[in-house]
Amino acid sequence: MKIEVKNLTKYFGNFTALENINLDIVEGELLALLGPSGSGKTTLLRMIAGLETVDDTDKGEILFNNIDVAKKDIGDRDIGFVFQHYALFKHMTVFENIAFGLRVKPKKERLSNKEIEEKVTKLLKLIQLDGFASRFPWQLSGGQRQRVALARALAVEPKVLLLDEPFGALDAKVRTDLRRWLKELQEELGITTILVTHDQEEALEVANRIVVINKGKIEQIGTPEEVFHNPSNEFVINFLGNVNLFHAREIENSSALEEPTDNKYLIRPHELEIVSVNDKDAIIQAKVKYIQLAGSFVKVELTYLNDDKRVVLVEMPHYEFNEKNIQKGDIVGIRTRKLRSFEDGAGI
Ligand SMILES: Nc1ncnc2c1ncn2[C@@H]1O[C@H](COP(=O)(O)OP(=O)(O)OP(=O)(O)O)[C@@H](O)[C@H]1O
């Protein structure tokens, strides 16, 4: 299913929750709606689902395969949902939870009991919970419950899957495992999927494209690589990971910048390099305050030598850290590997 959102605005009283949203969702893709709390992600998802109305006064449109669904009931939109706390039916087994949507279909569309059993068995395999059919929800872990919720959503073969922070309540390790699993499953099924998340890593890892939303407006739409490496503005770069801010005069002091400007520069920790304190390309001098060795990269936190309230974060591979023999308390120089400025509205 292809979905188009055109000129969509949503007011709650005087408050503008969404402002002129335009978005094309390609058949079979996994699109992440990423933004801070209150940015309007859930409202947009709920409008696509039909849980929130498109105001009559609004000229906004939501098209499913070129057909306007604004006036279509939620039941007629062929949608499967999984929410963060989409509680399973407590008094029903895993099997009956998954079968629920199939059993409540009108008689003429309903599958036979045997067909339902075959289908549920297949879904249990798909979510890797074969053998769990007769358990009750309270006998499952949080991750297993969310997988059952996903199977229940998929049972009725929806054309679109809407996921609102489906792994939000789970711990970090389970979350990481489940999102990999979801990605593979989604690719295998080829079902158009919209995932709401405020977790940048989750969006970067699973999405084909990311829509970055802030205060009801779209800041950028792009592949994970695009939004991470070519953020279109300051909000996006800040939201997608740690970033250091430098003023132009700091950069001008080094030979890294030929033309003096008023710009400020936003540079990610891995785009900075620790060099010797006298290095001619160093933009600032700093003192090593804290070193975090656990993780795939070494994170070094430093403070400016001339202003110990200002912090700089540098990340580097372990081999580079070992070669440079950096110690807490060292006075060093910091050099940039990349410059990025937004002052003129365009990234460098
Ligand atoms: N029914 C409603 N009535 C009034 N205001 C609402 C209503 N639903 C949402 N809002 C407001 O609209 C804004 C966007 O809410 P929304 O739930 O879409 O944000 P979100 O990006 O999904 O946030 P979160 O990540 O916290 O769920 C918020 O400021 C919220 O308070």
Automatic annotation (TrEMBL):
Transmembrane segments: none annotated. InterPro entries: AAA+_ATPase, ABC_SmlMolc_Importer, ABC_transporter-like_ATP-bd, ABC_transporter-like_CS, P-loop_NTPase, Sulph_transpt1, TOBE-like. GO terms for molecular function: ATP binding. Coiled coil: none annotated. Residues 3-240 form the ABC transporter domain. Keywords: ATP-binding, Cell membrane, Membrane, Nucleotide-binding, Sulfate transport, Translocase, Transport. Pfam families: ABC_tran, TOBE_3. PROSITE patterns: ABC_TRANSPORTER_1, ABC_TRANSPORTER_2. This is Sulfate ABC transporter ATP-binding protein. It comes from Aliarcobacter cibarius.
